[in-house]
Amino acid sequence: MKVLKYLVMGTAAFAFTAMASAAEQGTAAEAEAMVKKGVAYAKANGRDKFLAEVGNGKGQFIDRDLYISVWSTKAVVLAHGANAKLVGKDIIDLKDADGKPFMREVVAKAASANNGWIEYKWVNPVSKEIQLKSAYFEKVDDMLISTGHYKK
Q1: What pTM, to 2 d.p., does this model score?
Q2: Mean pLDDT over residues 142-148, rounded?
Q3: 112-128: pLDDT as tens digits
Q4: What is the dihedral of CA 111, 112, 115, 119, to 10 degrees?
Q5: Is 27-151 assigned to CATH 3.30.450.20?
Q6: Which of 112, 74, 109 lies closest to 93 in space, CA to CA?
Q7: Sign for the pseudo-dihedral over CA of 117, 123, 125, 127
Q8: Would you kindly state where each structural domain of the chain is located, as residue ranges?
């Protein structure tokens, strides 16, 4: 009976840890919702105020491993919630951990649709591990607003 008690307690502890770990990472729905929130903010407050808010390291567009990135339709970084050093850089030829030129895919998709999803491997800013990332973007005027969630 004692063994069964410890087995149940151990299973419960493992399940709790797994749930807590999953809660630390954003979901696809949360990533898409963050982009939509960013789009609404940009339309309501204007481009400059929106870009400043995205660049605010403690602002409303950062949540755990979710953050907004904003690029021009030519892949120049306009604002970045996780790495302000990228602002102003042309990243059209940026490749993921496997050598995939994912920004070219984003720009091509944005030219034919106002929104979409792409996948690439990127460093998770929280865990510092390379993970598969699924990113959602929407095109607003000459800006591409994106947030991605990391998959385990």
Answers
A1: 0.82
A2: 96
A3: 999 999 999 998 888 89
A4: -80
A5: yes
A6: 74
A7: positive
A8: 27-151
